[in-house]
Design a protein that fits this description.
Elements (H helix, E strand, L loop, with lengths): L2 H5 L1 E5 L5 E5 L6 E2 L18 E2 L4 H6 L1 H4 L7 H28 L4 H27 L5 H30 L6 H10 L5 H10 L6 H26 L16 H29 L2 H6 L1
Antiparallel strand pairs: 1-2, 3-4
Length: 284
């Protein structure tokens, strides 16, 4: 490594791996678990690579640099930043290609817009928290954490809005649909059971096509949540997964995959609904 670059590099130990050079801007250093404030101590199995004690000005001035610092937040930041650009790109593609080809109605455009907007908000809230959780103020940290949780709730809502809309696409029960929209973010499983029963059970083609996709999404969400709360795999490899492969990073990647899977499911069910008119389905 050139001598000039060595002066700006800070060597840190990645578990039992070799020492890697990590470029750290002046005024920013990485801390161990023992050195960080108590409000950042959420996972004792991540032993190194923490950003901490930064004032507001440093957080705001150097947030762009923080994107390129190798810390234990790097994967968390980039996974959802790239996720945001993924769903933004899908939004453009859907509006210009997918929906016009499906002869979509105005309602379809609104539903897709809501869904993808919710996904993008979820991604950005997460990026914001993982960028600025290094603030020295516990109050500021908790505010960003609350925004992150709000983003998760909005992302979940983005999953359920198209699901309820297309599940009850052929029903004229507008009051029931409105009621379900209000409750579905909390009780998402109830509309699924009701929809299966209303469509004649598991033997009907639409149920057989759609329900497996629903359960795949729930499975990915369950795996992500299980890893998140159990802190697996770093629980079994303390200090080995500080920078890559931790449970929170797996959670991030699975959330992006879950949202993408649900978007593709939305495209599938949209095309199905427009290719199978409601009158035809009611007569079968």
């Amino acid at each position: 490594m050139p001598q000039k670059l060595l002066k700006s590099a800070h060597y840190i130990e990645l578990g039992n791996y070799h020492y890697w050079p990590v470029l750290i801007p002046r005024g920013i250093r990485l801390y161990t678990y023992e050195q960080i404030p108590s409000f950042l101590k959420e996972n004792p199995y991540i032993t190194d690579g923490y950003r901490a004690y930064l004032p507001s000005k440093l957080c705001l001035k150097r947030w762009v640099r923080d994107l390129f610092i190798l810390s234990n937040e790097t994967v968390n930041i980039w996974s959802h930043l790239l996720g945001f650009f993924l769903f933004f790109s899908l939004g453009i593609y859907d509006m210009t290609t997918v929906l016009p080809e499906a002869n979509a109605s105005r309602d379809d455009y609104v539903i897709y817009s809501i869904c993808l907007f919710c996904f993008q908000v979820c991604m950005l809230c997460s990026v914001g928290y993982h960028l600025f959780c290094c603030h020295r103020s516990e109050k500021a940290n908790r505010c960003w954490m609350a925004l992150d949780y709000a983003g998760i709730a909005i992302g979940i809502l983005g999953c359920y809005v198209p699901a309820v809309f297309y599940a009850f696409y052929c029903n004229e029960w507008y009051s029931l649909r409105a009621f379900i929209f209000c409750c579905v973010s909390v009780y998402g499983f109830i509309p699924t059971i009701h929809w299966i029963w209303q469509n004649g059970g598991m033997t009907t083609p639409i149920v057989q096509a759609f329900v497996p996709r629903v359960f795949v999404m729930y499975l990915m969400g369950a795996v992500a949540f299980f890893l998140y709360i159990t802190k697996i795999p770093e629980r079994y490899f303390p200090g080995q997964l500080n920078y890559l492969g931790s449970s929170h990073q797996c959670w991030h990647v699975l959330v992006v995959l879950m949202f993408y899977w649900w978007h593709q499911t939305g495209v599938y069910i949209t095309q199905y609904r427009h290719n199978q008119p409601c009158s035809q389905l009611m007569n079968t």
